[in-house]
Amino acid sequence: MKFKIEKLARFINFLLPFVVLLSFYFLPLTSPLTWFFIFLLVLNIYSLHIQKKHTLLSNFGILAYLRYFLEGIGPELRQYLYANDTEEKPFNRTERKDVYIKAKNEGKSSSFGSLLDFNQRKYALKHSFYPRDLISTFSLNFGEERTLKQSYHLSKPLLIGAMSYGALGKKAVRALARGAKKANLIMNTGEGGYPKYHLMESCDLIFQMGTGKFGVRKENGEFDPDKLKKLSEIEQIKMIEIKFSQGAKPGKGGLLPKEKITAEIAELRNIPLGKDLYSPPYHKECSSPLATVHFIKNIQEISQLPTGIKFCLGNEKELYDLFSIMKKEKIFPDYISLDGSEGGTGASPKTFMDDLGYDLKSSLKILSQILKDLEIENQLKVIASGKLINSGHQIMALALGAHAVSTARGFLLALGCIQALRCHTNNCPTGITTHKAHLMKGLNIEKKSERVKNYASNILKYNYELLAALGLKDFSEIKPKHIIFN
Ligand SMILES: Cc1cc2nc3c(=O)[nH]c(=O)nc-3n(C[C@H](O)[C@H](O)[C@H](O)COP(=O)(O)O)c2cc1C
Fold first, then answer.
1. Which pTM was predicted?
2. Which of 10, 77, 184, 425 has a C-alpha 20 to 30 A away from that of 148?
3. Same domain assignment for residues 28 and 158
4. Structural domains counted in the chain
């Protein structure tokens, strides 16, 4: 096959000058076809003899462009035509469609049978012989362990995961925030600094402070307690989250590619324009377990709000030591946001996405065991995330020790994300992770906020129904014994 393509390339390269000569002879000089052949000839000479960047062009000439073209449209061809419904990653078409259906409030059932390969199914839920009637209440108080005056009451076991303005465009942020308000959910601001667009829709917010301290930093990049105090006094900001790491890039700070840094984002984050933005991989204040615990306490005291920490689990011995110090010092974060290594991101090096950290289910098992061994399970809440875009997986996370779950990409799909995998390029075709006006044009904030609301209410409806199928009446009753481990 290779040999034939080489021959074809040689034949084209040989023929092209004659085609141009023949077109001079048979066609008028004004003919577009003549100029098209001249263009091909010039391009071929440039490819073969002048440019030195691409070996394939030097060796084969213009035929190599065909390969680049096919390579370029390969992902679309596979997604639209060749990949089967349960094949794509991170979310296959069946999973995405399930979110779209929930977001559009369409179709309540499917038929004929599951599309899952049951030989590959690792987990399932144990339904009861005696299902219960549906009870749809949920209650969780963040900060109650410290008898905090401004504790936060969560009335649904679902949160909108952390995504910054920067990773997301302003319309996507507003659609999510408006949807959160309609669905009575709390939304995490992500580490993008002052949450200007989140605040416009008056939903409840968790303000996230990443290692770059955007929104709460001084000119020199250091933490500014006064800014945090001011932010904490904003009525909508209900909790603070200190981000140590996330599943898609543990051990690495946040990354915002320069293509996505507009003048407004640079101002909101207090950062320069025209350069990729790398946050430090760690909080300067947290060089040891003791220093970390005191940093958490400091943030709790400044904000007077429930304060959690977010991380992806790596070295379990370090985590055990950290919690031992917490126990000794009697200082605990009000919650842990535990992100599995399968979590998503707006931008990260591939190896950090693929090769680091525990997946969510293993993390939950390890974390629960550490909390149990140290007898501190009642000191804090756990929020889990990592591909929890459907009810079954959300219930499994609750069974493995989470008190509530959050999803980021579930809500992006509800907004209409087609998984083009271009969040880092500023060229999101659905206008979600871009700041380009022409790409955001089609994103209707009001319409998409309805989809966010529908997705949340439908997924919660099935959460309550699964709970009843398990024969339980309260989410706190779900335990690992309700899971079938295959
Ligand atoms: C576009 C995008 C931006 C994100 N930005 C942040 C962020 O600012 N801070 C953070 O802690 N996590 C961020 N994440 C990770 C999510 O909050 C979440 O932890 C992860 O995607 C797992 O949830 P999921 O599998 O439901 O998406 C981002 C994820 C995506 C897809």
1. 0.92
2. 184
3. no
4. 2
